[in-house]
Amino acid sequence: MPPHTVVIGVDSSTQSTKAAFVDIATGRLLAVGRAPHVVTGEAGARETDPEVWWRALRDAVAAGLKESGVPAEAVTGIAVAGQQHGLVVLGADGSPLRPALLWNDTRSAPQAAALTAALGGADAWTARTGSVPVAAMTASKWMWLRENEPATAAAATAIRLPHDFLTERLSGVAVTDPGDASGTCWYSTATGAYDPELLELLSIEPASLPEVASSGAARIGSLTAGAAGALGLPAGIAVAAGTGDNMSAAVGLGLGGAGLLDHPVLSLGTSGTVFAASRTRPASPALSGFAAADGTYLPLACTLNCTLAVDKVAALLGLDRADAAPGGEAVLLPYLDGERTPDLPTASGLLTGLRHDTTPQQLLGAAYEGAVFTVLRALDELLRACGLDPEDPEVAARPLLLIGGGARGHQWVETVRRLSGRPVTVPAGGELVAMGAAALAASAVTGRDPVAIATGWQTGEDPQLAAVERDLATWARIGSVLDRASQPLLGADRPRA
Ligand SMILES: Nc1ncnc2c1ncn2[C@@H]1O[C@H](COP(=O)(O)OP(=O)(O)O)[C@@H](O)[C@H]1O
Ligand SMILES: O=C(CO)[C@@H](O)[C@H](O)COP(=O)(O)O
Fold first, then answer.
1. Any idea what the Cα angle at residue 398 is, between residues 396 and 399, rounded to 5°?
2. What's the pTM value of the predicted model, to 2 decimals?
3. How remote is the CA of residue 327 from the centroid of ligand 2, in Å?
4. Each residue of 423-472: pLDDT tens digit?
5. Residue 356 annotated as lining a ligand binding site
6. How far, in Å, CA of 411 to CA of 320, rounded?
7. For a substitution probing ligand 1, which of 12, 15, 305 has the most ligand atoms within 8 Å of its CB?
8. Interhelix angle 109-118/138-148, nearest 10 degrees
9. Could you report the predicted ipTM of this complex, rounded to two decimals?
10. What domains can you pick out in the chain, each with its CATH number?
11. What dihedral do alpha carbons 129, 14, 367, 427 form, nearest 10°?
12. DSSP code of residue 74
């Protein structure tokens, strides 16, 4: 292999780090190194020590180097895509002061409600930032920290998102990108900058935040000698700004200004997300109105309970996750971690419709259906946010691009087909977040547009699974249970134990 041909795209998501080694010229995926994370916490808490991410990045790169057989000197660039929203606070020596509060930590729900009210309601927030500060947003987590651990908040000299933290470890540069910054609720998608009034409301010193790289500025620095030593890579190679994991998946799929716009994606991982890249700036309180990595926008809806919740139900039933059948009359809303869409941060799971002849396989199927229904229900609002009419036959015929770990599972794919009634495409290459990060790294090396690079790699182009008849009876049954379930039944009126 000629030198200078390989980039590394890092996906540092909730459960693990994946490092994709990609040939720049062809987009060929040479190897994926993997390393797990540790998530701790009960009763709404979800935390990971940022040092765990750094060690996992190091291990994943080492595994990828070994698996690919690529000589380290052939690697010319690296970029990190990270789980969104997490709050990382650093002390004066640059070390984390405490574990990061993750996107799915719901303890910040009261602070989210207070922030929403402080600005006069949800619409005021979406007009400024694109999103409402639900518990997931970094602003709510920062306020939780100030109220619950004031000494730690006072000692914080730097506030970072997970991908910023890792990018700074690689390059020594304190930088973020518009995509991940738009998940903080202190960055304005209307102005493309931090919102000074919101920083004041949150008592955040602007100097404690990373600079926001402009969407076009792909290379933000070089791999430092220290990081190069830790990773076994050459010092001085290009480091890109990186982005949030969903934004990176959009790049990996070739979605954005230089590619496909207003095309729906469904991601099934720890979170369930639906999103699209669009030129229309989203401002719907029902969605998160993020910026994309390439200067377009990324309207998105996110659920807290997806693959982990269904795997938990399978474990409770003593079944393999593949051993499921359509749920029949049973409806299971698997809100084991509370929920974000709909905004029920203290909710718990709900099971109805049990009969003598209900089988364990049907109960597991009902968990798949509840998880898929919850994220798919936001699809029409997503399409409207893109300026489309969901009833338009051409729009309804656009295939769902299905990604994330769940897309590898037959039950997930079939449940999505049945409940959406849409054609579905599952990109065969997989690891779209890491591939998007690789395209960002390749952009830092070559100066080309990352979406155009990924489009050339053809990462999202695979045969479609035809639409099947939509299971409207199941759709209506789950919708009716969710709409009629009283807040007390979902546990949504109780503080967590
Ligand atoms: N073959 C499979 N069938 C069904 N689910 C799978 C399969 N492989 C992985 N998963 C699911 O994928 C999830 C991890 O997905 P991933 O997108 O990597 O998560 P995250 O990005 O949140 O860390 C696991 O929780 C697991 O349930
Ligand atoms: O909070 C969101 C999106 O707003 C999540 O999608 C996180 O970005 C975590 O993603 P995964 O680890 O599930 O991929």
1. 115
2. 0.97
3. 27
4. 999 998 889 999 999 999 999 999 999 999 999 998 767 889 999 999 99
5. no
6. 11
7. 15
8. 110
9. 0.99
10. 6-248 (3.30.420.40), 259-426+467-497 (3.30.420.40)
11. 90
12. G
